[in-house]
Write a structure and sequence with these properties.
With about 80 residues, this protein is mainly alpha-helical. About 55% of the residues lie in helices and about 0% in strands. It contains four helices and no strands.
Length: about 80
């Protein structure tokens, strides 16, 4: 992982190093255990663009699906 971080220029970035660690762990657990193959596979995998997860908005208690919907459906009575 240290070599990959150095090659990627991310030595001082803890978030990026976490991504490298997770990538190497996945590859290792899936059977890529030979050092040079693990390095090559990790470098290739880390080149792939990361797609953020979809933003799922669950309906609120009033049936709306956004803060604006919620605000429109709430009334305050004194």
């Amino acid at each position: 992982m240290k070599e990959i971080a150095q090659a990627k220029g991310i030595v001082g970035d803890p978030v990026a190093i976490n991504a490298v660690t997770a990538c190497v762990a996945k590859l290792y657990n899936r059977g890529t255990q030979e050092r040079t193959q693990l390095y090559a596979s990790a470098m290739e995998a880390l080149e792939q663009p990361v797609t953020p997860p979809p933003k799922h908005i669950l309906p609120d208690a009033h049936g709306g699906s956004s803060p604006e919907d919620l605000n429109a459906s709430v009334t305050f009575e004194h």
